[in-house]
Amino acid sequence: MVFQEWNRVAENDHLWRNLCLKKWSFCNFSKCLGSQTWKQFFLKQTKQEYQMALAQPEDFIFKEATGNLGIIGPMAYLSGNGPTMGGREKSIICTVSSKHMLYAWDVQEGTMIWSSPVQQSSITHLATLPQLHLAFTVDLEGTVKVWNCQDQDALATFPVSQACFSLEVCLTKDGPFLMVGNSEGDIYTLTVPELRGVSKVHAFKYTVDLLHCSPDKKWVFASGTHQNILPRVFFTECLLKPSEGKSPLSLSIPFSSCCRACWAPRRTSRITLMYRRGSSKKTGFTTFDLMTERTGGRTVIQVGTSCNDLRTTRGPSAVCGRILCMSLPHLWMTPCMCTCGKRKAVIHTSRAAVTWNT
């Protein structure tokens, strides 16, 4: 009787769905699930990950690109960056070239499938929206363009008066939007693919170097790497639906010298900042939780620090670990401590990982 009950529970589709959503929260399951059940997907994907973990360098193949392609710069997936059943979807990446061109590549075949015409100015930044198969670029002159990587010409262009230093694509329930940060501290919000201006916000006195939309699209984090800039978090809806004569709802985070930021994938209102301070540029991490509260008929953003506030130290401490920073060309380590006193913590950013000795 017990075995029968366990077998019944093990075949519950809701159980396997929850396991998949918890393990692969970044996946677009509408594409990768196909006709398979949640259980079949979980078992097959887990087996595939196990096989990949056992793979050796000689198990991989590569194909070297030929021709005068220039120096390849930023790259991003245009499609196919998630797991699919049977591998039916092609993986396509976009790359920027020093030849003032944008390329699209078939990853499996290792071949170029599209290239843009030569642009008047060097392309400095690239962002993609795989769900709509669109790529976005900005050049040295501040011209923003959107491409479908099929037609020869861009679908739309938008001139920004100053040089741009950050791009972020946000796919919301109201549709896709593109956010652009420039050297004057302005943040432009544009429709996609028309690149029609929705709002313009003056966020800082200095360059907007970082723009990150939270996983649930509720928040937009903006910051610059200048030491006098305090990062700001905007309520996304206020940027997408601006009210005339009113400033968008936002909050300055009381933390300077931010050089990287990353939203927690499973805690959608939690963001971790990486900072460098002092003449020795010591590196540290701190984490903030955001929330909104209705006070006196208006919405207020509140911020609180969580327990993952990490700082580098010159020597070992009672609670210490090591920061492994992928700072090319060397891999270096430095002792660190958690200001809240907890022994276990793991933080990942685009170029660093923090692990704790236990």
Automatic annotation (TrEMBL):
Pathway: Protein modification; protein ubiquitination. GO terms for cellular component: cytoplasm. Keywords: Ubl conjugation pathway. InterPro entries: F-box-like_dom_sf (IPR036047), F-box_SCF_Substrate_Recog (IPR052121), WD40/YVTN_repeat-like_dom_sf (IPR015943), WD40_repeat_dom_sf (IPR036322). SUPFAM superfamilies: F-box domain, WD40 repeat-like. The keyword Cell inner membrane does not apply. The keyword Glycoprotein does not apply. PANTHER family: EXPRESSED SEQUENCE C85627-RELATED, F-BOX ONLY PROTEIN 3. This is F-box/WD repeat-containing protein 12 isoform X3. The lineage of its organism: Eukaryota, Metazoa, Chordata, Craniata, Vertebrata.
